[in-house]
Design goal:
Length: 65
């Protein structure tokens, strides 16, 4: 049961990160950025969301144990 919750949480986190990356890429493209620049901004947003999720997870696990 616990493994299923962890896997679903990871999947949800990846979906949220992908949506943030898509939004950042679209906004960059609408701002007039080239495709490589928009892709770089999308990758940066994806990495930021994943890093934030990892930091929150580490903090919560330290507080709850």
């Amino acid at each position: 049961m616990a493994v299923a919750v962890v896997l679903l949480t990871i999947a949800l986190m990846i979906i949220v990160a992908l949506l943030a990356a898509a939004g950042a890429g679209k906004l960059a493209r609408m701002d007039g950025a080239t495709y490589p620049t928009a892709l770089a901004r999308a990758a940066t947003a994806f990495a930021a969301v994943v890093s934030l999720a990892a930091a929150v997870t580490a903090t919560l696990s330290a507080l709850l144990t």
